[in-house]
């Protein structure tokens, strides 16, 4: 797992500067709830997750919902003390880890605490990540009744040998069954895929895409496999036990994904995310509201061990291990261990890095002179849309999406 970021010590009472909430009425507020438990740790994963044998004594899944609910109440008290006006939550996202390792009624209790503490906007999106092996029909009965609107299924691949390399333990046949259960209860269904796994052929990747499309989801996320330092898969590659990822192979698979998704009626709205009109909702309505809040640099509070939060230029992060996290919450202290106030330069860099990835792109008037000067060359290279630039926005072309990092560097004059 990655080390915690460097930053200033976080105050024990969690107090926020008044400047971090001064523009709150113009900014949305979202809630992320991190569930740090997994049945098995996947070899490619560097998220802050734990199996029960890793945790040992002193940490119980049974108590987690109460501790998370306590932090939700704490979050509201901190925002009130800072002078933030009341804001109903724009979105709630239960991620992990594997949220569905907890009983569905415990997720419902955490959502109810969020509703009591903040309220939900009338059109709020509430998403739960799910492992298809850890759900039943009753799971979705409870989640739908609680007010969940979307389920994000961690499929990754439909090909058994690819799943083995990733050390994903779910049974591929369980994915369409679980997606069907969610859809039968009126829940939106998103399918998450990973491409570029060592040993995955283009034919394997096509199989996974076609399997995902056969489930008739309204949203698909497709991420290239990134080898993170400290993971089991990184060590296997270093020892030569499996081949390293191939950027050209990943580019070919991204292009195939975009083509097949487009044929099926999906449209991209962020480099790795596609949505389509389905079940009485438009493609825009089926975008991930919660993730767009991140890409648009809105405000969010992260609940749980290792969770990160942001309020208009102030960022903080919680203790990573569940044991000290739990102890802090039960004392009534902030579980945050560090924070930073972003300077203007950092905020501008993040604005460009995140904004260029979404379909609407970046307003040219918000770019610094060096960024505006780079636009003509990027259009000539075929990476930015010339017509969009004439309308005042820097928008990636299809080819430009493959080169998003290079476009970002050019706009920042790096």
Automatic annotation (TrEMBL):
Stored CDD domains: Radical_SAM (cd01335)
Any one GO molecular function term: coproporphyrinogen oxidase activity
Gene3D superfamilies hit by this protein: tm_1862 like domain
Record-annotated Radical SAM core domain positions: 23-267
Protein name (Swiss-Prot/TrEMBL): Heme chaperone HemW
Tree of life domain: Bacteria
Lineage, opening ranks: Bacteria, Bacillati, Actinomycetota, Actinomycetes, Micrococcales
One GO BP annotation of this record: porphyrin-containing compound biosynthetic process
Record organism: Kocuria marina subsp. indica
Function statement: Probably acts as a heme chaperone, transferring heme to an unknown acceptor. Binds one molecule of heme per monomer, possibly covalently. Binds 1 [4Fe-4S] cluster. The cluster is coordinated with 3 cysteines and an exchangeable S-adenosyl-L-methionine.
Family from the record: Belongs to the anaerobic coproporphyrinogen-III oxidase family. HemW subfamily.
């Amino acid at each position: 797992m990655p080390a915690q970021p460097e930053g200033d010590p976080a105050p024990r009472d969690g107090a926020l500067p008044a400047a971090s909430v001064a523009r709150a009425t113009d900014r949305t507020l979202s809630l992320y709830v991190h569930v740090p438990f997994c049945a098995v740790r996947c070899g490619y994963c560097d998220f802050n997750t734990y199996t029960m044998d890793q945790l040992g004594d002193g940490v119980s899944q049974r108590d987690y919902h109460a501790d998370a609910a306590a932090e939700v109440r704490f979050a509201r008290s901190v925002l009130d003390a800072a002078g933030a006006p009341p804001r109903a939550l724009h979105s709630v996202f239960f991620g992990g880890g594997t949220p569905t390792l907890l009983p569905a009624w415990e997720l419902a209790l955490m959502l109810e605490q969020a509703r009591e503490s903040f309220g939900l906007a009338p059109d709020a999106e509430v998403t739960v990540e799910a492992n298809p092996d850890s759900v039943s029909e009753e799971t979705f009965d409870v989640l739908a009744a609680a007010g969940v609107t979307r389920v994000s299924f961690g499929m990754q691949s439909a090909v058994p040998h690819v799943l083995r390399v990733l050390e994903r333990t779910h049974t591929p046949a369980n994915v369409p069954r679980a997606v069907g259960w969610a859809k039968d209860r009126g829940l939106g269904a998103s399918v998450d895929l990973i491409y570029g796994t060592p040993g995955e052929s283009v034919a394997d990747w096509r199989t996974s895409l076609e399997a995902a499309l056969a489930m008739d989801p309204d949203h698909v996320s497709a991420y290239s496999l990134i080898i993170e330092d400290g993971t089991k898969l990184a060590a296997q590659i270093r020892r030569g036990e499996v081949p390293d990822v191939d950027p050209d192979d990943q580019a070919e698979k991204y292009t195939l994904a975009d083509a097949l998704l487009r044929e099926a009626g999906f449209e991209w709205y962020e480099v790795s995310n596609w949505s389509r009109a389905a079940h009485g909702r438009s493609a825009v309505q089926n975008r991930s509201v919660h993730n767009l809040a991140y890409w648009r640099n809105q405000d969010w509070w992260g609940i749980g061990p290792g969770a990160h939060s942001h309020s208009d230029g102030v960022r903080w992060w919680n203790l990573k291990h569940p044991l000290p996290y739990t102890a802090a919450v039960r004392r009534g202290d902030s579980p945050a261990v560090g924070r930073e106030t972003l300077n203007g330069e950092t905020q501008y860099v993040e604005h460009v890095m995140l904004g260029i990835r979404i379909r609407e792109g970046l307003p040219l008037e918000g770019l610094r002179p060096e960024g505006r000067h780079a636009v003509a060359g990027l259009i000539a290279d075929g990476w930015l849309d010339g017509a969009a630039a004439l309308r005042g926005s820097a928008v990636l072309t299809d080819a430009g999406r493959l080169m998003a990092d290079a476009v970002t560097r050019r706009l920042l004059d790096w």
